[in-house]
Amino acid sequence: MRFHIITIFPEAFDSYLKESIIGRAIEAKKIKVLFYNPLSYCKPKERVDGRPYGGGPGMVLRPEVFIKCIEKALKVISKNKKAKTKIINFSPSGKKFDTMYAKNSAKKYTDIILISGRYEGIDARVKKIFKADDISIGDYVLTGGELPAMVLLDSISRQISGVLGKYESLEEERVSSSIVYTRPEILKYKNKNYKVPKVLLSGNHKLIEEWKNSSKK
Ligand code: SAH
Fold first, then answer.
1. Among residues of the chain, what percentage have pLDDT more than 90?
2. Which pLDDT band holds residue 175 (cuts at 50, 70, 90)?
3. Of the ranges 6-20, 117-131, 146-160, 163-177, which one carries the lowest mean pLDDT score?
4. What pTM was estimated for this model as a whole?
5. What rounded mean pLDDT belongs to the chain?
6. Ligand 1 centroid to 121 CA: how many Å?
7. What are the CA-CA distances from residue 29 to residues 26, 77, 87, 177 (Å)?
8. What CA–CA distances, in Å, run from 217 to 79, 96, 197?
9. What is the CATH number assigned to the segment(s) 2-165?
């Protein structure tokens, strides 16, 4: 899977992409991340944004430089005759992203173009021309589409075979609970003892699984 990220802030991705599972997935070439910066298509002194037609606050990202980035990405992608491409634009009012979307994307596509907006977003004609999906990662407004791009990249990558270890992915499918414990068995904090639930120390796998399932919610 190749992720083609269009952003005016590519450095925002640097440290995250180096770490842990995603860092290893890139090293092992399970995924590849390429960047396209609309600023590099601006002529000297040309701005990447413009005032919105119809008035209102904030600035709108100009279509031409984003179109150039998408065309560049599509050109790179077209070298693979079997490529299957999805183009995603981010917007707080888009379709809500979830695990199903991540699973389907990992299955269906070889290349995903992620358009990270800023300010008031990108001129709407870009989405129309390229039939981009409008995707939201939640009901809140962020400063830019870089975090949403990282969220999709991370969760879609986890669905690609070989990115998670065999044990991790099986565990995630079977029982993944957010209530977890490690050493010490008894944690002392401000004169109180906080114990690990007994069942987890029992060695009884059936009971442990039942407990994990019931603690899932
Ligand atoms: N008024 C604009 C807000 C733009 S926020 C609107 O209603 O669309 C600036 C950029 O941040 C957006 O273009 C988008 O790329 C990103 N963004 C902000 N919140 C987001 C969210 N919840 N999900 C996905 N992208 C988001």
1. 90
2. low
3. 163-177
4. 0.94
5. 95
6. 7
7. 5, 16, 21, 29
8. 46, 21, 17
9. 3.40.1280.10
Any ligand 1 atom below 6 A from CB of 144: yes
Nearest CA to ligand 1 atom 1: 120
For residue 141 and ligand 1, the question of a CB distance below 6 A is answered with yes
Query: For residues 77 and 133, what is the distance between their CA atoms, to the nearest angstrom?
Result: 18
C-alpha distances in angstroms, 214 versus 167, 200, 205, 208?
A: 21, 13, 14, 10
Measured CA to CA, the distance from residue 58 to residue 144 in angstroms comes to 13
Tokens of 2: 């190749």
Spacing, Cα 153 to ligand 1 middle (Å) = 17
Residue 167 one-letter amino acid: Y
| Tokens, residue 174 | 């079977």
